[in-house]
Amino acid sequence: MTRPTLYIGNKNYSSWSLRPWLALRWAGIGFDEVLLPLGGPGYGKSQIPEVRAVSPSGRVPALHLEGGTIWDSLAIAEWVAEQAPELYPSDPLARALCRAAVAEMHSGFAALRRDLSMNIRRRVGPHPWAEDVRADIERAVELFGDLRDRFGDAGPWLFGVRSLADAFYTPVATRFRTYGVSLPPAAQAYADTLLADADFRAWEAAAEAEPFTIPATDSLYA
Q: What's the pLDDT tens digit per position in 87-138?
């Protein structure tokens, strides 16, 4: 059987790529990765030629499997979870809550994405965030607190044991670190758990070593 190939964007910036990459690593699924640098002509319009050649949507990540391509981060993560069911909690209600947390991250937090772009290499001081950004930060803190209160006795992850939700919220933890967002102790402890994960640390090391930048993103809040 042919090994899956995951096409990703720059590790410093591509939060969408990080999520399924972590899921595949945590599931122990062997895969090849191909990094397609973002930026330049077509960037932001899903028209980068090299990306369109491997992804029907013109976006990364895209997972090439024997017989087909999955071109959405949530769909890739769900495929991974079908191979590794332990990435969702075993309890039916906890599993539904985990899916809700994953789906909320996938479709929500638009203001946070807009103004706190993932940029692993940068560090900036606290910023006077717009009202919608503050609301997104508060919602993330609320979600972390509620789920840790409910499942924290089982371990340090969002649902006690590691799940797809942790893969989806790891980029948020990097954003909070990059932009100096002050978190309550419980939320900070959870963010620290995500940032200390060995697989994330491998991604982080590669991001820091990347030779290229996206100037429009790298100049934010200089």
A: 999 999 999 999 999 999 999 999 999 999 999 999 998 889 999 999 999 9
Quick check: helix, strand or coil at residue 216? helix
Q: Are the beta carbons of 6 and 61 closer than 8 angstroms?
A: yes
What is the reported pTM?
0.94
- Strands of 62-65's sheet, edge to edge? 32-35, 5-8, 62-65, 68-70
The span from the CA of 88 to the CA of 94, in Å, is: 8
Could you give the maximum distance between any two Cα atoms of the chain, in Å?
52
Instruction: Enumerate domains of the chain plus CATH numbers.
Output: 5-84 (3.40.30.10), 85-203 (1.20.1050.10)
Instruction: Supply 102's token pair.
Output: 């994953």
CA distances from 87 to 51, 71, 81, 106, 155 (A): 28, 20, 6, 17, 14
